[in-house]
């Protein structure tokens, strides 16, 4: 067998410690990634993640294991601030077109600020954004109404919104249509039903899911490994571990408004050029929220996140 027959190109489908599982022409091949730098921060930087397109070679002619030598530059990527890396970002998934923020209508209850944080992360990572409100089967008429009004500002901004139930199948056709033929990542709080939706959408061995803690009504962080899964009609989804809290520390405070489309559209309308839209006189964004033209709730979340970013910037001495 010639040496070039031992070369491969593939896509990382999940990473366990130092082993990256690479999909090479329908087969899964455990690979080690060449680690050039052992310092933790650098190692994180050179780490491959689900969705990475890689090239490497098999260890021998059995083609059962390999070494990754090259990682292609990433397009859309999901990254979050990492505590471990003290403010540096940790990439969770690469080459994704669409971030679907999955929240539950009930259990765990919706935390609306988390939706806006994910919208910002999607824009920052070069991904489209969509909202999925799952467990809609648990919502009576009143809660359904609340969910609809929560979703209205996102629909108005052109972001797709789907209401689903992994349990009854409601809305799954809408979700399927949204995901068809693209690379999407499901992200959101633990217990929202991300893995349950993946199981409902595709045949094959189910991913582990677990009940929300009855007392705290929080998810129990069942998914621990980010995983890429192929969809029958083309495209794939990446299931991620749930988050409890989502800081955006890799973002400069002044860049936040540009990532929220309705604020970006008002750029230049404020009296002060460097208006932070917090409490400045002549602020076009605050005025638009006052007239109900943009969502006052989104403005509230923007202001909260902006102050958080300013505090983080001060703490790190930028
Ligand atoms: N009633 C109802 N329960 C659901 C639905 N989807 C998921 N569940 C339940 O919610 C619980 C959590 O679901 P998971 O799929 O494990 O949630 P997850 O978002 O993957 O959670 P992490 O992996 O911890 O991030 C499980 O008990 C599921 O059976 C739904 O649409 N309706
Ligand atoms: Mg899960
Ligand atoms: Zn302003």
Explain what you see.
It is a single chain. The protein starts with 6 loop residues before the first strand and ends with a helix. Helix content is 26%, strand content 24%. It is globular. Helix 2 packs across helix 8. It folds into three domains: 69 residues, OB fold (Dihydrolipoamide Acetyltransferase, E2P); 163 residues, 3-Layer(aba) Sandwich (Rossmann fold), CATH 3.40.50; 63 residues, Probable gtpase engc, domain 3 (Ribonucleotide Reductase Protein R1, domain 1, Orthogonal Bundle), CATH 1.10.40.50. Strands 10-9-8-11-13-12 form a six-stranded mixed sheet, with helices on both faces. It has eight helices and 13 strands. Bound molecules: guanosine-5'-triphosphate (GTP), magnesium ion and zinc ion. Guanosine-5'-triphosphate binds next to helix 5.
What's the CATH class label of the largest domain? Alpha Beta
**Shape summary:** globular
At CATH level 2, the architecture of the largest domain is 3-Layer(aba) Sandwich
Please report the number of helical segments. Answer: 8
What is the rounded Rg? 21 Å
Structural class label: alpha/beta
Number of structural units classed as domains: 3
Total beta strand runs: 13
**Distance between the ends:** 56 Å
What are the segments in which pLDDT stays under 50 over at least 5 consecutive residues? none
Considering DSSP H and I runs of 4 or more, what fraction of the residues is helical? 25-40%
For the record, what is the CATH homologous superfamily label of the largest domain? P-loop containing nucleotide triphosphate hydrolases
Largest sheet: 6 strands, mixed
CATH topology of the largest domain: Rossmann fold
What is the average per-residue confidence, as pLDDT, rounded to a whole number? Answer: 91
- What percentage of the residues does DSSP assign to strands (E)? 15-25%
* Attached small molecules: guanosine-5'-triphosphate, magnesium ion, zinc ion
Query: What's the helix-strand series?
Result: EEEHEEEEEHEHEHEHEEHHH
